[in-house]
Amino acid sequence: MLAQEGGIIPALETSHAVHAAVQLARTMPKDAIVVINVSGSGDKDVDEVIRLRDG
Question: Domain of 45?
């Protein structure tokens, strides 16, 4: 979602927090603001994700 909407590839560790925040946001009012600290860049994880998905 972050990559598609904002061009941000979160690190694998951060992806779990992003997922939880999105789930929480779905239960909140539409005008609520959610802040997520993205602590790392996932561009370094792309090769590992490809390896895991293909394997």
Answer: 2-54
